[in-house]
Amino acid sequence: MTALGLVLFLGSVALVAWAYLGFPALLALRALRPAPRPRTDGALPSVSLVIAVHNESAVIDRKLANLDALSYPRDRLEVIVVADGCDDGTCERVASHAGATPLTLVELSRVGKNAALNAGVAAATGDVLVFSDADTALDANALERLVAPFADASVGGVAGDFRYSDEGEVGGERAYWSFDRLWKQLESRSGNVTSATGQLYALRRELFTPVPDGVTDDFFVSTGVIEAGKRLWFEPTAVGRGAAADGLGDEYGRKVRVIGRGFASVWQRRRLLDPRRTGFYALQLFSHKVLRRLVGIALVGAFVGAALAWNVHPVYRVATLAQLAFHGLALAGWLGRGLPFARLRFFALPAFFDVANAAALHALVHFFRGRQARIWEPRRNPDEALEGAASARRGA
Q: What's the predicted TM-score (pTM) here?
């Protein structure tokens, strides 16, 4: 039993260390000899900005006003809003909008986000497709910055940078996005970012692959760039802003849905895990999108292993107690969510870390049971989403 505990503890610690320290260190080493930056000196391409919406009447007016405020040339920009079974007046608001940007409304019965995006792309005429969420406000120059790297023929897609509008707030989710931004920068300097996030990204129209049901749309669409042998670049100056999740409870449910679909997405793109086809990117994808989502299993293994090895050496007793303390802080942060103390990093970071890994375990169970969510239900805080993002943009 003691030997089992040692193996379990050391193996689990090694997995966590590789996911959060080892692989980032390897990326940093590769970034010391960075891949060439893309050219950005070409003419601006024609752009189709596709937004899939479901019952977004609370934010759609501000989103359309935000798009009208973009500095991208109007003769090279069209906006396509795909209404996925809206019954709250969203379609009427879009249809009545009289803005400066050419606008097309595509109305569908409830088909799900992926099918809605496919319909939006079918209606698009631009050379470059841009995708954004209804509650994400774009900085005025975001589109120019986003599409500039397409002047380089090697670039097939560009991921934008998502930032919170309420910059004064401290929490685990914000720390995650800061870490994720650094991770993307290292990945991009090493060759390719692993994938884009749905708040803001772009790709050449000819590289779009219709999105199947049951996968994460942004991952599946953006990794089609890698599948086509093109480069997926991260552009940190192309900024979209939005509000944080209302709380850990909402965040847990969202992560279960997103990560569950993420497992299905990686399975759909499993050919990219073959290093004979994609080289270093295969290790990058495996470390970023598979191992990091299995850290929850390793956390359980590390605790059980340290407890089993309690009598072997004091280091295992310390490890057991340290894990109990960390998870105790996480539990306090979870139980106290909504209270001022729970927003302190001392509680917020452990709580967010444990919630994220618990959600990954939950999602893994759903994946193997074939229970991934297939219909998309956006959850918005209408008082904070676009309004808060616009305020942050004005103050930037």
A: 0.86
